[in-house]
Amino acid sequence: MDILNPFGLRNGSLIHISEVKQRGLDCNCTCPSCGDILIARLGEVRSWCFAHSNNCDCNFSLESALHLFAKEVLTKYNYIKIPEVIASFKTKVCTISKPIYFYFDHVLLEETVEDIIPDIILIKGDIQLFVEIKVTHGIDLEKHKKIERLDISTIEIDLSRFFFNKEFDRSRIETIIIENVTDYKRWIYNRKVLEKEIELEDEYLIEEKENMRNQKLREELKAKWIEEQKEKTRQLISELREKNPRMYGREEKLLHTHLWKKANEYLNLTVNEIPTYLNYKIQGEIVFNCDRRIWQTYIFSNFINKYIKRQKSDYILVKGVVSWLKKDFVTIPINTYLTYLDKKEFEGIPDLTDVIGEFLLNLCRYGVLRLITDYPTENNKYHWCFIKLVDNIKLLPRKYQSNEYTEIGNELVNVNTGEVVGKLSEVYKKIRGD
């Protein structure tokens, strides 16, 4: 600190070095601590300060001088605005009182109260308010505990930044001491806070118990809801399995459905021309709520025939088809409960990913697609990737479109003779141009 002694006494009142007009002994000031005559040093180079005239060993106390200064201000006004009182416990916060004016009758300076000496004591009737003046540091932990034990409300006023400047603004500091409640004052202890914090703790514990009960109830309800959804899914699977054979009506009925017209939009197939690979029974196909010829033709048309015509990618991914089928604009009806199934709960029941994977894998038998074996499958059909091998639909020649022929494995076989006509990928021919 540049200024060792910024205060002196003149006619019983504290005066700051910046308020002195005369140099040397003409300042007519004495030391607030020992009473010795002071010299005012108002040089052009060194910081302004007071010095003892007889070079005595006085240990000047800046704290005591500031306490005296604050006492003079408080005595002058006889009131002080104190900060709002806030109590809190964890997440609970309560404002006990807003900033208010405390009017007092007496001001005591550094009076002993039991085993502590507050800087200033303000007294109104039988009410005491301690005021601590912060100079270089606040009160220590020991004094803080003693204040709590005495159960006397205490505020701190931070004046540390105002007394080591040549320009000393007395009126501003008076305003800070009397009026300010936000920047320079804080509660060290307030007797009302402890009582309120105990209430808040009780409220918090009650709410925590209630929250725990509610959380347990929510978890129970969630578990019940999950089990209900699983049961609903199981029932739906059972119902659909019974309903599934009835999904596939006569050919003439299929021709007049709007779904078939949408699925067949790019292929223009007659019912008799629908190839076997677009009428292939797949385990788990109850995920679709329509005739299998509709959804298989729809996927083939949009992801193979249509894309090739438009010179799109030569690759088709299971995850791409699955994502597309879940879009709002796709008209193929899906039983949404079956689009994804927990394998542990519904082991052995294929979901949408499994069905699409098997459908595309079946197209490999007919030379329409080929699974890219070096593509990372991660043992999951969702990541399967296929490359397209044809640039249009492949149909079975009409001479083989009878009950005399059947498909076994990857081959077309004569039912009557057992003769293998050929591999499906060779027998099915591209007979329709772009």
Structure annotation, total helices: 10
Radius of gyration: 46 Å
What portion of residues is helical?
25-40%
Please identify the structural class as seen in this structure. alpha+beta
Q: In order across it, which strands form the biggest sheet?
A: 9-10-11-12-13
Determine the strand fraction and express it as a percent band.
Answer: 15-25%
The coarse silhouette is rod-shaped
SSE string, helices as H and strands as E: EEEEHEEEEEEEHEHEHHHHEHHEEEEEH
Compute the separation of the termini in Å: 94 Å
Your description of this structure?
The structure is a single chain. The chain has 434 residues and is of the alpha+beta class. The protein has three domains: 46 residues, no CATH class; 135 residues, no CATH class; 177 residues, no CATH class. The longest helix is centred in the middle third of the chain and has 53 residues. The termini are far apart. This is Competence CoiA-like predicted nuclease. It comes from Natranaerovirga pectinivora.
